[in-house]
Amino acid sequence: MARIIIIEDEISIRNVLKNILIDENKNYIIDEASNGEEGVEKIFSTIYDLALCDIKMPKLDGLEVLKKSKNLDYNLPFIMISGHGDLDTAVECIKNGAYDYIGKPPDLNRLLTTIRNGLNNKNLNQENKILKKKVSQKYQMIGESKELKKIEKIIDKVASTNSRVLITGENGTGKELVAHAIHEKSNRSRIPMVEVNCAAIPSELIESELFGHEKGSFTSANKQKKGKFEIANGGTIFLDEIGDMSLSAQAKVLRALQESKITRVGGEKEIEVNVRVLAATNKNLEEEIRNDKFREDLYHRLSVIKIHVPALRERKEDIPILIEYFSTQICEEQGIKNKHIEKEAINLLIEKDWSGNIRQLRNIIERLIILSGKIITADDIKQYV
Fold it and tell me: Which of 176, 205, 221, 372 is the most exposed place for a label (fewest CB within 10 A)?
């Protein structure tokens, strides 16, 4: 049940607020603090779901309490209450992270609505944190090899910058994981990364997909559409398989990188965009440049930072760790008990060439878990792999 703290120096107002909360829900756990210092002490020693806080108080005013609450290791919505406030005070409170501001005497309906919404907001924030954790686990890079550790160090260095990154490597090596790791550790992570698979979009539609189009700009353009660059504004766009992009689309991407502006297909208006670009390819772009299939100027714009993801056969020491990780993950997804994989079976898997890299390894582990018995043996490897 929700635990709420009332930080208020006037006992009569504390009692009124306490009675309002009890009438609203008898199961609320309510604590009180008679000044700002006591309030700070309590919010740092007990986890609360909501704080009702006066502004004008002895020892420490409400605004200082609010500022100190930023150092809490949990999210605490603050509803600031004051009889001396004005618009500037309200704005200052909101700027410093208050959930809402209410004047004295508080309107009962507004107060109760704000309390309910504040508690709901706390629950939503908790759910968002859980979801974000699940997403970060989904894109977790697994392994202990020196090649992987080198990539992780580069990611840590470049994530906080706005520098463009070109990620290279064979199909299935985990280039997408690198892009997600950079985005999740960046200052732009509050906005979901926008992903574009350049190889999966027909060449005649790629420009519309990236930059949007105006109504009537081509036969099937029945309404105006925003492109991926506009959608990613303020965040990150990931151009996967950029080596498959047409030269005309490359020219427009180059302009977007040079000028931070795009123009929708069939439109004339320039639209400013603030987007960090991450790109990936399984092709040798320098060779593509020599064959006039990729623009050299775009290559240099994209490759400020280059990260090469090695093939699985180049980091075989990670295979046992990946096998264990995928085995646990797949058993959980399938709703079955974890299956033990014999050491001899693991050794046989290590010796494989893995032309399809990590993607191929995961598929094979899933096949073995579904088709084998309680223990995955060397015979299972010979039969099913």
Answer: 205
